[in-house]
Amino acid sequence: MGFNLQLLFTGIGVGSIYALVALGFVLIYRATNVVNFAQGDFAMLGAFSMVVLAIDFGLPYWLSIILTLAALAAFGSIFNLAVYYPLRNRSFLPVIISTIGASILLENGVLAAYGPRPQSLPTVFSGQGITIGSVFLDSQYLLIIGVAAAMVAFQFLFFERTFIGKKLQAVSQDKEMASLLGISVGTMIMVTFIYSATLGGLAGVLVAPILFVSVGMGSSIALKAFAASIIGGFGEVTGAIIGGLILGVIETFGAAYISVPYKDAFAFLALFIVLLFRPQGLLGERVAEKA
To answer: Between the CA of residue 81 and those of 132, 168, 282, what are the distances in Å?
Structure first.
């Protein structure tokens, strides 16, 4: 029982990272009706930014976090203007190809700057964690779970209790009607990209101390987060969170009881099963179209 609880704690921690990145997928999809396949690279940029600021430049850890999130917010606006905005009136396919191209550009840019050698980032905590019974609660995983829970609560309050949040919801539901009501659709989409990039950067900051910081980490996280958003019901904010947590737990238990080298396959096996029996996802609604 203690071993299973330990795995559950670790799985929730890993799943929280997937949930944060999946939220970025869902928010941009709801605002633009396209999938941003560079979302995982925002996490990669956040992790490498922490390496540059905290290790290379020797800045205080918390200052490095603040500067990293600010840099990712600025990068989100640039990404919107460079990748999405020029193609905003085209179909979804050119925009998706544009995000894939941006992902390749970002990964190769970081590869040229830092090389293929993985980097390591120390944790901010001096202590390793606490032990409750037979379960060891790692400090970094506690931070990940706590920050993820705080971001979920913030997102709920932001969308349900603020005027800007209501505008963002209106744009995600019907851009033309929102524009007729006087809402600046372009500004709201810009805010969405900024927020999604910041979420991705935050995920990178949180996961960097428990993983090696490498160029390929963004693609790996993005694939899991994309699968999580589909499992939860693509386009559903709550579904993205639930899907991320489920995927993290399945991956952790699968690695412990079946095979570590094949742990990545368990996520896609879960995705296959969900698509087979419930194609709309766990929280998605079935949509019927006339032929």
So the answer is: 49, 18, 34
Structure tokens at 127: 């202590």
Amino acid at 2: G
Instruction: Using a cut of 0.70, tell me whether the model's pTM lies above it.
Output: yes
Q: Does residue 217 contact residue 31 with C-beta atoms inside 8 Å? A: no
Pairing of the two strands 129-132 and 135-138: antiparallel
Do 31 and 171 form a contact (C-beta atoms < 8 A)? yes
The distance between the two most distant Cα atoms of the chain, rounded to a whole number of Å, is 62
> N- to C-terminal Cα distance for the chain?
52
CATH class of 2-271: mainly alpha
> In degrees, to the nearest 5, what angle opens at C-alpha 289 toward C-alphas 84 and 90?
20
Segments making up each domain of the chain, as ranges = 2-271
| Predicted confidence pLDDT, tens digits, the chain (291 residues) | 788 899 999 999 999 999 999 998 888 888 888 889 999 999 999 999 999 999 999 999 999 999 999 999 999 999 999 999 998 888 888 999 999 999 999 999 999 988 888 888 888 777 677 888 778 888 889 999 999 999 888 888 888 888 888 888 888 888 888 888 888 988 999 999 999 999 999 999 999 988 889 998 988 899 899 999 999 888 788 888 999 999 999 999 998 888 888 888 888 888 889 989 888 888 876 654 444
What is the rounded distance in angstroms from the CA atom of residue 268 to the CA atom of residue 271? 5
